[in-house]
Design a protein that fits this description.
The protein has two domains: 246 residues, 3-Layer(aba) Sandwich (Aldehyde Dehydrogenase, Chain A, domain 1), CATH 3.40.605.10; 106 residues, Aldehyde Dehydrogenase, Chain A, domain 2, CATH 3.40.309.10. Helices cover 44% and strands 15% of the residues. The protein contains eleven helices and 13 strands. The strands form five sheets. A five-stranded parallel beta sheet has the order 9-8-7-10-11, with helices on both faces. Strands 1-2 form a two-stranded antiparallel sheet. Helix 9 links the parallel strand 12 and strand 13. The longest helix has 21 residues. One of its GO terms (biological process) is gamma-aminobutyric acid catabolic process. One of its GO terms (cellular component) is mitochondrion. This is Aldehyde dehydrogenase domain-containing protein. It comes from Homalodisca liturata.
């Protein structure tokens, strides 16, 4: 496991020499200490990416495609190793982590193919003395800010597309899961990508706002892509205004699960179990409320309770039988606990669970 940031093809410490600890949610033990980078380090990464862009943008699409394909092959060879890193720092059950690696790797494979299919357009002119055509060109340095719930997939989905198009990247992974990003940087280095086209800036929760601000306001950054909360997305939106950056936002979900009177209850229960408990419910499309028609309410609740009792196994996320791991951190644990307590206070009936599972670890619920 790498424990240094990756800037301009080198493994580096923060200029301040400061670090922050990464903990495993399973038992709260420290896994590693990584560089706690700030705005100064972020500028270094942007400068490296900007210099690299000048050459990378002119590399033939066939060569970019070949490098991406090589990266995909190396990622595939290291599937289990990367999945273990994901499980260790995110608390995700190992079987889910393996599935995430397969899903994320597929984006690299897809964009390796798309690199040679970046096509322009022509338009018919109303004046026979003119010809209209469009060329698609890489925009420049792209800053990628990613969350902890899919630390592998969301980096690769963004970065593979940018690299295929000829852009260079600066990645800011979530402070809870920086090791997965560093593992990806290591495999990219093995694939032979030029220095500076892919950079990883690690920073603690305290320093993340200053790094994000630099990404949004630095004139060498052409685009910002962010996946995370709506409140942070609004802040980044405002910070990108002065430089009128291209901005891609994938923000918090608000997902109702609706069971109509005509529904197949077995199918509805199976879908509810899959969607609600994936990654311990820590997914943007995870249902946050169930709207069940009164005609099917009792049947749906009884079947879902039964399935939860016998199909969900809470425990060590490295146990192959486990499909419910810990929550990511104390803040998330407290949030879930308060939601349950609030619901019970307002009249909700607990059919199963509804309390901390301290026998497994401090962040299990």
């Amino acid at each position: 496991v790498q424990n240094r940031a990756f800037i301009n093809g080198e493994w580096v410490e923060a200029r301040s020499q400061m670090t922050f600890s990464v903990f495993t949610p399973s038992n709260g033990s420290e896994i590693a200490a990584v560089p706690d980078m700030d705005a100064v380090d972020a500028v270094d990464a942007i400068k490296a990416a900007s210099i690299a862009f000048k050459n990378w943008s002119s590399v033939a699409s066939k060569e970019r495609a070949a490098l991406l394909r090589r990266w995909f092959d190396i990622l595939e060879l290291n599937t289990l190793e990367i999945a273990r890193v994901i499980a260790l720092e995110s608390g995700k059950p190992l079987q889910e982590a393996v599935a995430e690696v397969a899903y994320g790797n597929a984006f690299v494979e897809m964009f390796a193919g798309e690199a040679t299919r970046i096509m322009g357009e022509t338009m018919t002119s109303g004046d026979n003395t003119k010809q209209y055509f469009y060329l698609r060109e890489p925009v420049g340095v792209v800053a990628l800010i990613t969350p902890w719930n899919f630390p592998h997939t969301l980096i690769l989905r963004k970065a593979a597309a940018a690299l295929a198009a000829g852009c260079s990247c600066v990645v800011k992974p979530a402070e809870d899961t920086p090791l997965t990003a560093l593992a990806l940087a290591s495999t990219l280095q093995q694939a032979g990508f030029p220095k500076g086209v892919f950079n990883v800036v690690t920073s603690s929760r305290l320093k993340t706002p200053s790094v994000g601000k630099v990404f949004c306001e630095h004139t060498s950054v052409a685009a910002v892509s962010f996946t995370g909360s709506t409140n942070v997305g609004k802040l980044l939106y405002s910070q990108c205004a002065n430089t009128v950056k291209r901005l891609s936002l994938e923000l918090g979900g608000n997902s109702p699960f609706i069971v109509f009177p005509s529904a197949d209850v077995d199918l509805a229960v199976n879908s509810a179990l899959t969607s609600k408990f994936r990654n311990c419910g820590q997914v943007c499309v995870s249902p946050n409320r169930f709207l069940v028609h009164r005609k099917l309410f009792s049947k749906f609740v009884d079947q879902l309770t039964w399935r939860m009792k016998y199909d969900l196994t809470i425990g060590s996320n490295f146990d192959p039988l486990t499909n419910i791991g810990p929550l990511i951190n104390q803040g998330q644990f407290t949030k879930v606990k308060r939601l349950v307590e609030d619901a019970v206070t307002k009249g909700a009936q607990v059919h199963i669970g509804g309390r901390p599972a301290n026998y497994c670890g401090p962040l299990y619920y």
